[in-house]
Amino acid sequence: MPAVQKVVVVGAGVLGLSVAAKVADRGAQVVLAAPPLDYRTASLRSYSWLNAFGAAPESYRRLRLLSLERYRAIAAESSPTPWLKFDGALTWRDADKLESLQARAAELARSGYGAAWFDADQAVQAEPALDRAALDGYDLVHVPREGWVDLPEYLHQLRRRLVARGAQFVTLPQAPTLRVAGAKITGVQVDARTFLDADAVVLAAGAGTPDLLRQVGVNLPAQTNTALLVTARSSAAAPKAVLRAPDIAIRPRADGTLSLHAEWADAQVTGSDEQGWHVAPDVVTAVTEAAARWLAGNPAFTDVQTGIGHRPIPGDHRAVVGEVGSVGGLSVAFSHSAATLAPILSELLAGEILDGTRSPLLADFRPGRFAA
């Protein structure tokens, strides 16, 4: 048996479930502690574009590429996977942002990522669901290696795996209390009567992670914001590729609907955790109209649903992963790119917890970088 025999994971989003599954796969006892349905869980409202497209340090890009490889292995092992697809992505921008897109595409091409420029005709040939007239005057970046994952279904798969491994599931009625003795984590206090003892604890509670770390005097800077995800069914054939237009991002879903995300719409969300979050109907209509503009036949949308949740963003926009240096046995997994990074981060973190060796791949992402 490993030296660490019991691990408590706080949080049941894609990072929490992925870490729990990897630890359980290695034979350790796992307790997953999370609210019954957390409206703040980003994983349930994630756009979930799988990519290594954005400008980032080489160490961050390497992690994303490794995680994409892990997802492809999952797709190969679990085929068919209607909830996990690699049918490419197309990105295009207005003139004021074209220069930065050109620079990024050139960098990706040099790195061997496979990015290529398409004119409007090539784009429609690659993705017939696009409206050719709407693309007049645009050149698009095509990346065939990118894809998407429906996180609710992936989370279901991870839960099934944990059940098969004998994991214990504990409902958190409120934020738990971390218990520490002699600079070592001893477990998690759920309520007055329930204490979960542990050899190691992993905090993967999304937007709630910084608050939990403050209990033990650890500062985790965050720029967490609130995001709106719209899902809807198009009257026309759904695209296969991820589409990243200047004003809207569109991706297919396993059930035939589309996920729609617009950063300008995020700013229209109002409310609070205490009173609930809201978005005006005309904002939702504007999102679907923006999507229709780029799709062939300018389709109508039905079955329109909205999801609003917190989007956890580390203060320096890089993942925060690894043991908290000041508290032995306490680790954290916190990232804005959790959908893309979950397979590789969970693999590396589980290895560190159970083997006691630090992965060089996580050197740039440890929580200690924020220490005063």
Automatic annotation (TrEMBL):
What EC number(s) are associated with this protein in UniProt?
A: 1.4.99.-
Identify the GO cellular component terms for this protein: cytoplasm
The GO terms describing molecular function are:
oxidoreductase activity
Transmembrane parts of this sequence: none
**Per its UniProt record, what InterPro entries does this chain match?**
FAD-dep_OxRdtase, FAD/NAD-bd_sf
| SUPFAM superfamilies named among the record's database cross-references | FAD/NAD(P)-binding domain
Where do the coiled-coil regions begin and end? none
The protein, known as: D-amino acid dehydrogenase
In which organism is this protein found?
A: Achromobacter deleyi
